[in-house]
Amino acid sequence: MASKALLPPPLSSKGSSSSRFKRIVGSVSERSNPKSNVSEDSTMDEASVISAVIGILSGYIGRYVKDDSFRRTIRDKCNSFLNRTRTKQDSDDIDNDNDNEDEDEIFVKMDFCMEKMNTLIEDHHQGTKKQVTMMKSIRSSIEVLTKIASSKSYLSSCAELYLAIAYKLLRNDRVSSKHLLQVFCYSPNLARTYLLSDLWEHLFLPHVLHLKIWYTSEFEFLSNEVHVGEKEKKMKVLNKVYNEKMDSGTYLFAMYYKQWLKVSGASVPPLPIVPLPSRPSCRSSRRMSSDSTISNSSINPNLYKAVFGLKEEKQKPISLGEQTGISTLSKGLEIDKKLYGDDYKYSSVQKEDMLSFGRSSNHSDKNQAHRLDYFKCLSCRFIPTDSMAKISYIKSKNASSSVLSSELVEAITTICSSNILTECEFTIRVVTKAWLNSPGDPLIEEALTQTSVIEGILEVLFVSTEDEILELIISILAELITRNDAIRQIILNSDPQLEIFVRLLKSTSLFLKASVLLYLSKPMAKQMISTEWVPLILRVMEFGDKLQTLFTVQCSPQVAAFYILDQLLNGFDEDKNLENARLVLSLGGLTLLMKRVQEGEIHERENSVSMILCCVRAEGSCRSYLAENINKSSLLELIVLGRKQSSSRYALSLLFELLYLDRRTKITKFLRGLKDGWNGLNTMHIFFIYLQKASPEEKPLVAVILLMLDLMVISLNLSDY
């Protein structure tokens, strides 16, 4: 077997801070710059990479030809797997004789090819068969194995393995290597845990080591769970997600190496991304109790479960009808019940999965050594010399001095280059102190707004579990964004899937401040595809009444929530928008939005009405609930006051939607709820004045409402209208 030194490292960037940040979000190796450039001192050209990959794979499969013990081990594993698969197929397909006959034939052919390959190798060693006859036999076996590989997924892995052996006998190392990699593509779980576990540990494990570290951390935490039933349930989910992620990462890197083995001249393949499963961070003693949070919640407890994945005490939900809610404890594959999970297919293993474990606020933080080890597992951190010189010797016409203090320079250097978490956390305090002591200093501002510095800060924001550090970073970034819009783009480019914000929004003490930073960053809908964004933002809307102060920046979380919710309900195609709107309904978001119609500034209340309209269009059955519970006076107020600001169209549209009720008695009841008017103004007079100034598009709607109100009044008394 080839030496481990031959392992071709994933191509990395020239050391930009951006590439480092991407690695820290996902793993040790998978987050490198997709452009896959390497530093000049360690450049490995395409031919060298291909040669190294082929050397490792062909060297491994070559042991089958040379090593009797290795050959016997592989043969026994394949036989054992085929026997179990045959037994399971027999029990599943008793009633289908024709299918059984076809499958039996495939098993017979596979057994024959395996025995044939062993015989050929023995003849090869003894020299008892002529070269021409041997080549003919090998090619005949290849033809049969190729058909098997394309016929049944559960046999494809073994067929591909023996194809690799056959081509090795033909001395075609490149094709042999491709077939060996294909084993990991067809059945990543079977290959990594059973058939080729030693090769997997050598070639693939370095790329997914971050998943193993994550699993160990979560396993240790769950080991302290008091409730046995809850512990077993969470352990089961943890193992499921871990195995799915490992299989997905194995598949992606098998395909990555196969790309390298294509004909020369092809473009360098991008490095795969295998992110960590997303989870809440609930490890700080400063964070509020989960129980107290939910006990004060006025909305459906399903919202809390969707954010934290916790089993809560039963409470009477305030929601639309008989809601069943949703559970986002995990999303992804159904566990394959078959042996070794060998039926994993490409379409399933690459599905994203999310895992949220409930964590008690009483649990203490991980010890310092563990966090240091976690941070050290990041790939080498590097900052270009030019950038460092720029930080050290920045000059500014508006600055009182021409250079930064040595302490601040050292702190910035540490943020950009150190792989020790505690050092980076300490330097965040140094940077914060310098910023607060010299507010608005152009020299400090220019130094901190360097791309490499921002990305170094973001790395700490993703890894640190200290609330104090996280809050300082959030505040610094908020200050910098308001002064320099380029910082916003650096954040979005560095974290395109907003994984940092998902983590922060799942916290119990910093989610409101994090929502403000998210709003200042102005992300687009395409960066928030996951459905977990809906419960996270509804939670901000529920608790975000108080203004948040991030140093000198002040912003309402409500503004942030409405911005993000607008992206979620209007920023995608129609199907995705409707899906998110239904999720808002299932989590009790309608109650929150109705509450906001009565409170806040006019534009915020109008925003609430526009979100309610999205929900009505997604699920018309909620009209009855709205007509019964929405504050009619507030709707009329928005029509009157909104008219002055040209923003009353949402309130008018909602009012018209609420007339599409399924019973006339409900319509009459709703109209009677409007008759009291607003602030002493008669309802019909409000619509009469509105009709005179309405746009051509609005006039028919207003006229219908006015007519319906008029007819209702006529039945009681003569109407002036």
From TrEMBL:
Residues 1-19 have a biased composition (Low complexity). InterPro entries: ARM-like (IPR011989), ARM-type_fold (IPR016024), ARM_LIN (IPR055566), ARM_LIN_2nd (IPR056514), LIN_N (IPR056512). Residues 1-44 are annotated as: Disordered. Residues 404-566 form the Putative E3 ubiquitin-protein ligase LIN ARM repeats domain. Residues 567-715 form the Putative E3 ubiquitin-protein ligase LIN ARM-like domain. Residues 50-278 form the Putative E3 ubiquitin-protein ligase LIN N-terminal domain. Pfam families: ARM_LIN, ARM_LIN_2nd, ARM_LIN_C. Residues 29-41 have a biased composition (Polar residues). This is E3 ubiquitin-protein ligase LIN. It comes from Pisum sativum (Garden pea).
